[in-house]
Structures are given as structure tokens and as C-alpha cells.
Specification:
The structure holds two protein chains of two kinds. Chain A is an all-alpha fold. Chain A has one domain (2-165). In chain A, 77% of the residues lie in helices and 0% in strands. The radius of gyration of chain A is 19 Å and the shape is elongated. By secondary structure, chain B is an all-alpha fold. Helices cover 77% and strands 0% of the residues of chain B. Chain B is built from ten helices and no strands. In chain B, helix 3 packs antiparallel against helix 5 (65-84) and helix 7 (98-119) runs antiparallel to helix 9 (137-159). The longest helix of chain B is centred in the N-terminal third of the chain and has 27 residues, at 23-49. Chain B is elongated. The chains are: A mainly alpha, B mainly alpha.
């Protein structure tokens, strides 16, 4: 397994991402990862807050197309994340926080899917009040993305996690 | 620059950051959360002004701006802690960092842009745009400047730790 991960790390593209001094290597992939995060989590948060009653003047029914933008942000991050992972496969896959992060990202995407398919396609189209199920999904969205950001940031501090949590 | 470095050198804050190893990562977490609040709200308004989801009234999206301002406040406070409490090189290291300087310039541009939106009557005209209607060119310019500036802020924010890469690329 370790040999496989090392082989991935040392293959051409991951090596380029990690070691090239070009602005189109590591720093671009890293920046794209932050920008995609801002888009998918930012818009998810705006929608969740609206479902929970913030800026109640914003009509919910027309917001469906926003999910295309959110998915675009997500795919930027899936690809840039894959690049960052391949460039440091041995380090990342030995990092317990990485798995926690991925679990919450999967949760966030599932909630995004449920919101798109079950809330923004049907129940809200007619207008009126926000159903309880949609409010729960909104809270789940805030929780999953918030936790994904916390865990994602903490992957950079494995020694702190080991020290404080023994992981 | 020296005056600014001196002014930003706050002993107790630097000690606090130095003494407790969790302060920095927690500030980073809030810096990222604040970024999502800012982009999610301001970016949403910008998209509508540019003609995306025209069924949403521009005035209603402006009600999200306080959330974005809250995100900015998170980031201002945590960013101040990064600079004033920088354990390696103090505030001077940040203030002399090209990526950081470009980030600050872009934040000032984004701020001036927002001010122009509200002060120059662009917002009033945009709020009057009917549902399904197109915003005026002036509002679209503000929206484009906003998106470029804020995503530029993210880019140069990430580049602060890789300033050498930036300088190398420009042959400096």
C-alpha cells in the first residue's frame, strides 16, 4: 500500500504539483481549493441561512439554478483536492483528520443533493412557509460544511491533534 | 512601514499566540468561515446583478450583506491576530510580504467599490430593477470589480505563505 502511494506521489503530475516553482503548480491548486470552497460552502450557507429565516425577503422558488454554481465549486474542489492528495498521498492518508474531513464533505454534498431534489424542486415552488424538513437540512448543511472546514484546516496540524486528542 | 510595524507590535498578543499553540489554527478556521460568509453573500448579490437568477429582487439580496460584513469582521479580527501575533518575524514580515500587500490593496479596492455602490446611487438604481429585469451597466461594473477583488483576495491570501514563489515568477 505504502509503495503504491509513494509511486503515485512520485509520478509526473503529482511531482510537478509539489515541486515546480511555477505559479501554475502547487500554489494554483491550493488557491483553487480555497476558491471552490468559498463558492460551494458560501452559497450553501447563504441558502441555509435563508431557509432558517435570514433575509426572508429573498424568494426561495427561483434559487434552483444556484445549485449549478455550487456544484461547479464542488467539482473545482474535488479535482484540486485530488491533485493535492496525489502530491502528498502518504502524508494525507496517514492523517486521521483527513478522513474526518472527507466524511463531512460527503455529508455536505448529500445534504446539498437532498436540498436540490427534495426542497427546491417541489415544496417551495408554490411559495409559503419553509417546511420543517427543509429547516433540518439547512442545519445539517451548516453543520457538515462547518465541520469539514474545521477538520480540513486541522489536517495541517497533525502534531497538535496527536498532542491534544491522541489521534 | 516602520511606524506601522511598531504600531502593530502588540506584546501581549504576540505572547498569547506564542504561548498557546491552538490559537493560530483556531484563527485560521474562523478566517475560512468568515471567507465563506463573505463570498456566499456578496458573491450571490454580484451574480444576480450580472443577470443570474433574475427572478430574485436585488433589494432582497442586499439583506444578506450584513452576514457578509460579519464574515469580514471575523476575518479582520483573525487577520489582525495573524499579523500582530506572527511568531516568525512579527508584523514586519507580513507588511513586507508582496502577496500580503497585494491582498490588502484588493481589500481596499473591494471596500471602495462597495462604498461607491451605496454612495453613488448605484444601489438605489439597482434596487429599483424589477423582478426579471436587467441591472444597469454601472451596477454590473461594481459586481465584476467585487468578484475579481474578492477572489483575488483569496488568491493572494493563499500566496502569503508562498511569497517566494510569487517573487520568483516575476523574476524578483
Amino acid at each position: 500500500m505504502l509503495q503504491l502511494l509513494e509511486a503515485i506521489e512520485n509520478s509526473a503530475l503529482p511531482t510537478f504539483i509539489r515541486e515546480s516553482p511555477s505559479l501554475f503548480a502547487y500554489t494554483l491548486v491550493l488557491s483553487l481549493h480555497a476558491m471552490g470552497l468559498a463558492v460551494v460552502v458560501g452559497l450553501s450557507t447563504a441558502i441555509a441561512l435563508r431557509l432558517l429565516g435570514v433575509a426572508a425577503q429573498v424568494p426561495l422558488a427561483p434559487l434552483g439554478p444556484l445549485f449549478r454554481v455550487m456544484y461547479a465549486g464542488f467539482w473545482v474542489n474535488a479535482l484540486s483536492g485530488l491533485g493535492l492528495l496525489a502530491a502528498n498521498a502518504t502524508g494525507m492518508l496517514a492523517n486521521p483528520l483527513f478522513y474526518v474531513k472527507i466524511a463531512f464533505v460527503v455529508g455536505g454534498v448529500l445534504v446539498m443533493r437532498l436540498l436540490r431534489n427534495n426542497v427546491f424542486n417541489t415544496s417551495l415552488a408554490a411559495g409559503g412557509s419553509v417546511p420543517e424538513s427543509a429547516r433540518k437540512l439547512a442545519m445539517a448543511s451548516l453543520g457538515c460544511w462547518g465541520a469539514a472546514i474545521i477538520a480540513g484546516r486541522l489536517t495541517a496540524y497533525p502534531y497538535l491533534i496527536e498532542y491534544y486528542f491522541g489521534l | 512601514m516602520e511606524t506601522l510595524t511598531e504600531w502593530m507590535s502588540i506584546g501581549w498578543l504576540a505572547e498569547f499566540v506564542n504561548d498557546y499553540d491552538w490559537v493560530w489554527p483556531i484563527c485560521e478556521i474562523f478566517h475560512f468561515l468568515g471567507m465563506t460568509l463573505l463570498i456566499g453573500t456578496v458573491g450571490f448579490l454580484d451574480l444576480r446583478i450580472l443577470g443570474f437568477i433574475k427572478a430574485v429582487p436585488i433589494a432582497s439580496l442586499e439583506k444578506l450583506i450584513p452576514v457578509g460584513v460579519m464574515g469580514f469582521v471575523f476575518n479582520f479580527v483573525t487577520g489582525f491576530i495573524f499579523v500582530a501575533g506572527n511568531p516568525s518575524g512579527g508584523p514586519g514580515a507580513y507588511l513586507a510580504n508582496t502577496a500580503f500587500q497585494l491582498k490588502m490593496v484588493l481589500i481596499l479596492i473591494a471596500g471602495a467599490n462597495l462604498l461607491a455602490y451605496y454612495v453613488l446611487g448605484v444601489a438605489r438604481a439597482a434596487e429599483a430593477v424589477p423582478v426579471g429585469g436587467d441591472a444597469e451597466p454601472a451596477a454590473k461594473v461594481v459586481a465584476v470589480v467585487s468578484l475579481i477583488a474578492w477572489f483575488g483576495v483569496i488568491y493572494f491570501g493563499r500566496m502569503v505563505m508562498y511569497n517566494d514563489t510569487l517573487l520568483y515568477a516575476f523574476g524578483l
